[in-house]
Structure formats: structure tokens, C-alpha cells
Task: structure prediction
Amino acid sequence: MTLCNECAPILVNEEAGCNIWLMTVRAPEIAATAAPGQFVHVKIPGMDDHILRRPLGVYAADAEAGTVDMMYQVLGFGTDRMTALVPGADAVELIGPIGRGWEVPAGCKRALVVAGGVGSAPLYPLVQSLAADGVAVDAILGASTIDALVARERYGAVLGCEPACSTDDGTFGRAGFCTPLVEEALAAAEAAGKPYDYVACCGPEPLMKLVAAMAAEAGVFCEVSLERRMACGVGACLSCVVDTVDGKRRACVDGPVFPATEVVW
Result:
């Protein structure tokens, strides 16, 4: 694993909706090498008393422009501090790209991606890659409310159609969780004689567990991207271990993407 350590000037840092922010930085080395599903470990300036970095999935990487987009939800001191960083004045230090990304099975012709909340960020580069390879992609996005569906327009632009959406409060799309949409999509694909070859899911762990079970029942290979607290981000500290059928593995370098059947839920 070849890692870059870049001081990345901030180009954009703005709230996209519902306490979810988007940050764009100039990081040409990482932008040129990041694969869908990998992440960066972010050192936030002005946090000398909080030395641990924050792992953030790569939302988009533009090798030509040398830019990396990240999506983050404000949940604690670190992410709150990130909202105060000023484009054109501040920079963050990034280590990356890190980890095992999405590994689409050979010969995949049809894929289903399922995102819950900010899980839409690590899945977006996968959607771009699948679409560029001519794979038929269906996307399901779930969020708490319409303002939290911040990736909906980007997905629609790549797919050429509106992704299927659900919101907990019913303000957009199907009311409630997105799992019924997943169940319906799998069943409809099977009934049409065009079953999915691949399911990818990222979001809250209960969602990924349910989607993994649905995919297994339908006989479709499924991958999930797991979130864990990470101290070092490079596999040394063992703070992010995941229980798998092959024993404990590190989310940062053995993941964050794992075949769903390998995870001990």
C-alpha cells in the first residue's frame, strides 16, 4: 500500500444540508491514485489537544483537477472544528488513499447500490466507475429527511435518472427506511429474469446487516463498507478490528470494504 501525505489547501467547505458538510481540497497525489471505496485520514488544524485524525471516505476524486471531495456529518468536536475552516486560508493534512475499496465481480452486468445517510459518499465513486464500464446500476438512497439527501443530484446526473429514495419522516420518496425498496428491487430484478450480479451497501450497521441478509437470500454477491473508530489508520494500532469468519481483521487496511458474508454481524 503506497500512501501519500499531502498538505491539502481547502477550496470549498460548505453545509450541504441537515448538518452534513462538503469539503473540497487540492490533493493531486491522492486524487490521482484513489480507488472507489478508499478513504483519507484527516489531520484537522487547530486541534493540538486532540491528536487523532478523522477517517473520511473519498466522495469524489478528480485526477485532472487534482481535487478530492469529502462529505462529513457534524457529530463531535473534530467535525465541528472542521466547519470553521476557511477556504483559501486553511489547509488539512491528508494521509491516503487508504484501504481496500469496492471489488466488483468480473463480468458484472447489473448492480444495486444502497446508501444510508452519509454512506452515499463512499458509494458515489463506485457508481461513477460502474456506469463508465457500462454496468446497469440502480441506486437506493435513504436518509432521515429530504435535506439529508445531499448526494441525490450527483447520483442522478451519473445514472441519468432519479435514484430511488426514502426518508424516515416521509419528506421525500418512500416514507420510512429504505430496506423495503431494496427487497422490492431484488425481487423485481429476479422476476424480470435480469437478477443483480452485485450489491454494494454503506450506511448504518443495522442497514448493512439487513441488506447483506437480503442479498444472501437472493444469491447475490454483496460488499459492505464498515465504519470503525481509527487511531492510526494504517493498520498498526488495532483499534478498528472487525470480527470476520476468518478472525479479527483491521477495518483500515483489510477494509473498510468487506464481502458481506465474511462479516460476523
Observations:
- The two ends are 28 Å apart (CA to CA).
